[in-house]
Design brief:
The protein has 81 residues and is of the alpha+beta class. It has helices spanning 6-11, 13-21, 70-78, and strands at 2-5, 26-30, 33-38.
Length: 81
């Protein structure tokens, strides 16, 4: 694994990022001590990510959904008087 100094990383950042994106991780060191490891992110391939609406047509929400349990909730807030 390649080790670069902070100065080298700043000078060649674009090139180093391209290498990391291709899977070639590298370490940035300061005064000879490793500080961080730079690696590519594992993002899902196109078409594999979940999107809003992926359950469309598979579930149903009742019309009174926003009122469900309102009597119990009111009882819990008001309590026994």
């Amino acid at each position: 694994m390649q080790i670069v100094t902070i100065h080298e990383a700043k000078t060649h950042l674009s090139r180093l990022i391209e290498k990391a994106a291709r899977g070639e991780a590298f370490v940035i060191a300061k005064a000879g001590k490793p500080l961080v490891k730079v690696t590519a992110l594992e993002a899902p391939a196109a078409g594999q990510s979940r999107r809003l609406g992926f359950l469309a047509g598979q579930i149903s929400v009742p019309d009174d959904f926003d009122q469900m349990g309102s009597a119990e909730i009111e009882h819990l807030f008001r309590g026994q008087i």
